[in-house]
Amino acid sequence: MPPPPLATQGLPWHTEVDDAVGAIADARREHGDTFAVSHGRDHYLFTFSPAGVETFYGLKEEVASKGVADYLMLRRKLPDDLFDGRRTLPGTLFRKDDVALYLAHLETALDATLAEMGPSGEVDVFDLTRRLGHRMGLASWAGTAAASGEAFERLVAAFDALDGSDAFVHPDAMAAVAASGKAAEVAALEEVVDVVGPLPADDGLFGRVHAAWADEPDDAARRRGIGLDVALLHIASMSNLHAALGWALVDLVSHPAALERLRAGDPDHAARCALESTRLAQRSIMARSVLAPVSFSDGTTTYDVPPGWTIATLLPLLNTSAAPGLADWDPDRWDRHRLRPVDGLASPQLVTAFGHGRHTCPAQPFSLAAMSTAMTRLVGAYDLEPRWTSYPAPVAAQIGGVARAGGPVPIRYTRR
Q: Of 366, 90, 164, 155, which is closest to residue 147 (Cα–Cα)?
């Protein structure tokens, strides 16, 4: 079988790239919907055709693994200690009864956020949503003591330094992280352990984290295990939610009619706004690490992909251009969690906000409920005036996750 065309463009963790998404777009224009990118022993097969994307989403985890691909990306930023010996994993987070508790913590976090904001002022949208996300998340899986006072401020600073999403938001910085031996990240992780380890258990998820370590006889090892479990839970669960909420607020204030409809009390509209903003803000490279030989068909050609390769597609090159009109923000294109039929869309799998099939983000229902609640509370409490002069642009080097803003996104607020 023929090898795929080999693109000369590089990925941002291989070489200096001004625009990561633009570089892959250039390779696609030059080589078509299927091509390879190679650097040393690192090999990617990119696919963008309707059949290729459908084949991609149909890959079995034991053959081409999303989990391994995510781990290999995150370990560029995160210390190895974070992954070793964990007893409470992110996949256990979103049981139905847990979600109700998390949403209760969100309401408390919103109360604290509104109190901090006061009657009026100006704030960066993404600073606001990030701090809110920290407060809700830490209360949910580290107990309420972690979400206020000195403990909260120390944890915010530590998690901002430890932020695993830097692996895909600032991939160009990962060489410096590696050269330092991840010194800042190791120090931040130790700070998390120092703060979280001694906190008392509660009746929620933090109680389960404690229970998972109850048989550890050494007190210091038990506290360290608890702290590291919480660190992984918080990094894994909060990597994109705060950014997606930020874009939803940006889009709402840019569309006054939609904002007023939300204020009128339409919860389904809120969820559709959240989905639409997340779709448009996607910068995700969807990747699968090949663990066993794969015959991969893009609808025209079948390629033999060996173990060690990565099969990937890139959502920003599909979500806004796979059919006419998709570049526009239109919440009503969604019916619950599904995209309504779109004229000219060759496959519904070419467009997504949270993924498809067995690898749909397990936090999707919680994320949409949390974003809907937060948007409704914030726009209900304040009149919001955008202070940016043009629609915010994403970080140019980013290749993964929901977009982070490439510069300040200030907004003025006045209590209604």
A: 155
Query: Is the pLDDT score of 337 beyond 90?
Result: no
CA 304 and chain centroid, separation = 31
Could you tell me if residue 344 is left (phi over 0), alpha (psi between -120 and 50 degrees) or otherwise beta? left
The full set of domains in the chain, from first to last, is 20-415 (1.10.630.10)
CA distances from 386 to 162, 247, 412 (A): 30, 12, 6
Q: How many CB atoms lie within 10 A of CB 78?
A: 25
**DSSP bridge partners of 412:** 122, 385
Average pLDDT of the chain?
94
Q: Can you give 78-119 as a three-state secondary structure string?
A: CCHHHCCCCCCCHHHCCCHHHHHHHHHHHHHHHHHHHHHHCC
For the chain, what is the HEC assignment? CCCCCECCCCCCCCCCCCCHHHHHHHHHHHHCCEEEEEECCEEEEEECCHHHHHHHHCCCCCCEEHHHHHHHHHCCCCCHHHCCCCCCCHHHCCCHHHHHHHHHHHHHHHHHHHHHHCCEEEEEHHHHHHHHHHHHHHHHHHCHHHHCHHHHHHHHHHHHHHCCCHHHHCHHHHHHHHHCCCHHHHHHHHHHHHHHCCCCCCCCHHHHHHHHCCCCCCHHHHHHHHHHHHHHHHHHHCCCHHHHHHHHHHHHHHCHHHHHHHHCCCHHHHHHHHHHHHHHHECCEEEEEECCCEEEECCCCEEEECCCCEEEEEHHHCCCCCCCCCCCCCHHHEECCEECCCCCCCCHHHCCCCCCHHHCCCCHHHHHHHHHHHHHHHHHHEEEEECCCCCCCECCCCCCCECCECCCCEEEEEEC
Residue with tokens 């830097």: 166
pLDDT tens digit string along 249-275?
999 999 999 999 999 988 899 999 999
- Checking if the pLDDT of 63 tops 80, the result is yes
Identify whether the C-beta of residue 147 lies closer than 8 Å to the C-beta of residue 195: no
Closest C-alpha among 361, 124, 153 to residue 239: 361
Over residues 294-317, mean pLDDT: 97
